[in-house]
Write a sequence for this structure.
């Protein structure tokens, strides 16, 4: 069947031709600030996700990555990852494991022996073993003659200027929507209904086998419980306590638990916050404020421009001058407070502190 017929059968406008298959070890993940493919998350790189490695061994890379050409280095094209860092890293790790265990499993080594010897999860090693078996009689890949078990990463090339590439990198992450727990549970339920086993479901949805059937039962809970779960006000462990209870009891228990955790609404929130403030020894009206430099400069200018009015205040001239010098000191003039002026300021501060303590004791 020709490409135009295939596109028509799928309802597509036309067949695209810009999807490539990459050896993940040849792709570059920029790690330094200023490099085109740099992602700030590289500073605190995610730990390698072995569950993702296992899934790639089972099904390959399901979602293509985005790459861009970034010149030539050592005679080879430098292809950088714009989107798909974790898929690339996981694919490279899958290939590393296949290379490491190819001869081990050929030599009649078992998954149990490998798990004990190399301290790796059995499910991961079983995925490696099955992948090697599937590829055992297949021919090498590509012109380079890569081993048949090599996992290649599908990717689209993004051809654009640096600004558009950086925008693409940001957009692919920012516009992804986090999946709600209830949506994931519905997918889990549909997966089981379609004939999936509990073991496969646990692996696919990254939960324990003992939690699979319990998680599906959460769909029987009152909508308020599901809403609280989706809003991350309660976790799945707590939500499971509601399973099997009458709806009225679920609502009462939910309200009790949310109040315990401080998940309150309306005036209750305001009362809770005010009580906490008093308990911790401060209230908003008594809190000190740190003024920006612009405001401090404005105060000092006001002192200078309204000298007559300031001198008419009920304050000694030395207090006014000390205040002016204090403002200059805060603005960075280290010469403003020195000698007798510093002594006067310390004296004023000490008297103010004593006065405040005396008033508080009454």
């Amino acid at each position: 069947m020709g490409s135009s017929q295939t596109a028509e059968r799928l309802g597509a406008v036309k067949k695209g031709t810009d999807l490539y298959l990459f050896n993940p070890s040849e792709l570059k993940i920029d790690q330094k600030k200023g490099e085109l493919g740099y992602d700030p998350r590289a500073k605190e790189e995610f730990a390698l996700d072995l569950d993702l490695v296992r899934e790639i061994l089972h099904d390959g890379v399901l979602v293509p990555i985005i790459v861009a050409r970034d010149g030539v280095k050592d005679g080879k094209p430098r292809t950088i990852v714009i989107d798909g860092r974790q898929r690339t890293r996981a694919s490279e790790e899958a290939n590393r494991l296949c290379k490491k265990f190819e001869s081990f499993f050929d030599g009649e080594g078992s998954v149990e022996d490998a798990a004990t010897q190399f301290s790796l999860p059995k499910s991961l090693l079983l995925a490696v073993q099955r992948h090697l078996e599937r590829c055992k009689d297949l021919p090498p890949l590509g012109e380079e003659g890569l081993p048949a078990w090599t996992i290649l990463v599908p990717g689209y090339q993004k051809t654009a200027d640096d600004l558009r590439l950086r925008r693409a990198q940001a957009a692919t992450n920012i516009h992804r929507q986090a999946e709600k727990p209830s949506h994931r549970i519905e997918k889990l339920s549909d997966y089981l209904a379609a004939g999936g086993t509990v073991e496969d479901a646990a692996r696919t949805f990254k939960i324990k086998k003992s939690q699979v059937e319990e998680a599906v039962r959460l769909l029987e809970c009152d909508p308020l419980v599901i809403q609280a779960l989706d809003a991350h006000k309660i976790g799945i462990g707590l939500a499971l306590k509601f399973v099997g209870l009458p709806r009225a009891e679920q609502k009462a228990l939910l309200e009790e638990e949310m109040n315990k955790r401080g998940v309150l609404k309306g005036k209750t929130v305001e009362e809770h916050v005010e009580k906490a403030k008093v308990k911790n020894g401060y209230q908003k009206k008594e809190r000190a404020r740190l003024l920006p430099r612009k405001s401090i400069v404005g105060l000092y200018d006001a002192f200078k421009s309204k000298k007559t009015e300031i001198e008419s205040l009920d304050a000694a001239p030395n207090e006014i001058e000390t205040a002016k010098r204090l403002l200059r000191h805060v603005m960075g003039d280290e010469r403003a407070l020195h000698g007798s002026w510093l002594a006067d300021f310390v004296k004023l501060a000490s008297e103010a502190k004593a006065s405040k303590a005396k008033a508080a004791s009454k």
The chain has 17 helices and four strands. The first helix runs from residue 3 to 10.
